[in-house]
Design a protein that fits this description.
Number of domains: 3
Number of helices: 13
Helix content: 10-25%
Largest sheet: 7 strands, mixed
Number of strands: 20
Structural class: alpha/beta
Length: 557
């Protein structure tokens, strides 16, 4: 069911209290050698499989009182635990019921069924426009095979279909201009600094854009219709099937490159490649019919241009011909400085007045800068409330949606609609919440950047601060729940932890993290933060040890 009603409205904000009432977080964490819990955790961390890794642990009461710490003041890679910080800032500063607008505009005049001009699809930061997930989030059935949110029929893009219906309803049967995908509501900075080139091909590394369609990802499916035991690539499809990308099938049956292919035909093995900026995928490998299709989510690396092409396709399916071309229009601020320096620059005092009030926004030339002169609005679509997107973003750890929250924060609170402005605003919120500004640095909203760093102590402090806010019950419920949903669906599946661990997972290379709340044997709820860097590649032992630490915390406190 939707968790939106559990959130509070714009009027109830975190920052009505004066700065003097902000928490002064304790900096000393007990590590008493004779603590039963400390001995239990030290024994677990001595496991030969994980003892060479670097571990950080912070455990506090719900009010932030430290209970135990191990390297809690040292910096770690948070991976997707970063989303705790992004969703907190967005909820507090934008408001849980904030919505985002996608608009269809026309420029020119209509005569005898022909639009003499352009059609403009203008994005306003909606992560769920023609989305690949169904909202509100539904927890999977107890025996489901996947913990991820339900997904609609990917063969259609219903929001674009509805827009095309509106165009045809105006009597337009021909457009002699172009179809423009307009993503100028944000600066054209699709990736966070420190993202790996290996990530941006895949759906989880999809670029951020103010104009997003189908979560800026496609499903590439490879099937084999041949005889069993004669594996090859037979049919390769991209869904949704928009005429934008092509697949190079001439080399589809070529041998896998040296070092990629291994083993026999017991599994499907494919390699997918695409050069940056290219519209051509190359797929090589082997797929055996008895193992079923091979599927992989791949990123749409030109979101606004793809959206324009999808809009043109929808129009043509409704009998509206287009003589021009589908293409994108972007906005670039021209900034060439340091993202780190810009994001860490304190905000002017005058700008801070409205930051922590969810209904208050910057008054600047945003609308004029984004406006397209001489246009008429044909139709629009409002997003679901932010609260529903927070649930999806945290439950399924959706990177793109976290990135868009950070940019929407900048668009609402700043005259500078950029990633660096979003990072600057997030930092202002976190320092307002009492976190030491030297305890964290973020280069993105999702945690995909290998430059993101945070201490376990700061993460615990954020979780304690959130627990004091009016919107906390809904935000906590949006976290993955052990053994129930999201990325903890298959963890903590047995009593007494099933349904009693609310936490965000994080995985990036050889970094792993888990942070949230656990109900203990004594009936209290406590905060825990577990972070590990530089564990052995290919190992999953650190996750097992993390889960056993959570069990020890629950049993001991």
């Amino acid at each position: 069911m939707s968790l939106a009603p559990a959130f509070e409205t714009h009027a109830q904000t975190v920052a009505a209290a004066p700065a003097t009432t902000l928490p002064a977080w304790p900096t000393i964490y007990p590590t008493a050698e004779h603590s039963v819990l400390a001995r239990s955790i030290e024994g677990l961390l001595a496991d030969p499989r994980v003892r060479r890794a670097h571990w950080g642990v912070a455990v506090t009461a719900l009010d932030g009182t430290p209970l135990l710490g191990i390297h809690e003041a040292e910096l770690f890679h948070p991976a997707s635990v970063t989303k705790l910080f992004t969703t907190s800032a967005a909820t507090a500063m934008l408001g849980a019921d904030r919505r985002f607008r996608t608009t269809l505009l026309m420029r020119g005049n209509i005569a005898d069924g022909t639009l003499h001009g352009d059609l403009i699809l203008q994005g306003g930061g909606d992560a769920n426009f023609a989305g690949s997930y169904t909202l509100p989030y539904r927890a999977p059935a107890p025996h489901a095979t996947t913990p991820l949110a339900t997904q609609p029929d990917a063969s259609t893009l219903p929001d674009l279909d509805a827009f095309a219906t509106q165009v045809a309803g105006h009597g337009i049967t021909r457009i002699d201009g172009d179809i423009l995908g307009d993503d100028r509501a944000f600066e054209d900075t699709p990736y966070g600094e420190g993202w790996s080139v290996d990530d941006v091909l895949w759906g989880y590394g999809a670029p951020a854009s103010a104009l997003t369609v189908h979560d800026n990802q496609l499903e590439l499916t490879v099937t084999d219709a041949g005889e069993p035991r004669t594996p090859h690539l037979d049919t390769i499809t991209l869904t949704p099937a928009v005429p934008f990308y092509t697949v190079n099938q001439e080399s589809a049956n070529a041998p896998m490159p040296l070092g990629v292919w291994s083993g026999g035909y017991g599994q499907n093995r494919i390699l997918i490649e695409r050069d940056p900026g290219s519209r051509d995928f190359r797929v090589v490998g082997n797929v055996a019919a008895e193992h079923g299709p091979a599927r992989q989510k791949v990123a749409i690396d030109q979101p606004a241009a793809f959206a324009a092409a999808a809009m043109q396709q929808a129009l043509e399916q409704h009998g509206v011909s287009v003589s021009g071309r589908a293409h994108a229009v972007h906005w670039d601020s021209g900034f060439t400085g340091s993202l780190l320096a810009a994001s860490r620059t304190p905000l002017p005092a005058a700008d801070a007045m409205h930051l922590f009030q969810a209904g208050s926004e910057a008054h600047c030339e945003l609308s004029e800068a984004q406006a397209v002169p001489g246009t008429t609005q044909l139709t629009e679509k409002l997003s679901p409330p932010l609260s529903e997107d927070v649930v999806l973003t945290l439950k399924d750890s959706v990177n793109l949606h976290a990135e868009l929250m950070l940019r929407n924060l900048a668009a609402a609170k700043s005259c500078e609609r950029t990633l660096r402005s979003g990072l600057q605003l997030e930092r202002a919120y976190l320092t307002h919440a009492g976190l030491d500004p030297e305890d964290f640095v973020f280069y993105d909203g999702s945690g995909l950047s290998d430059k993101d760093l945070v201490t376990p102590r700061a993460t615990a402090q954020l979780l304690a601060y959130n627990a004091q806010q009016s919107w906390f019950p809904g935000w906590k419920s949006a976290l993955p729940i052990g053994g129930v949903d999201g990325t903890l669906f298959s963890r903590f599946t047995q009593a007494p932890l099933r349904g009693h661990v609310y936490a965000k997972t994080g995985t990036l290379g050889e970094a792993n993290a888990l942070a949230g709340y656990v109900d203990t044997h004594s009936g209290r709820s406590v905060i825990f933060v577990l972070m590990v860097d530089n564990h052995m590649p290919g190992s999953h032992a650190e996750r097992e040890i993390m889960d056993r630490i959570v069990a020890a915390i629950s049993a001991s406190l």
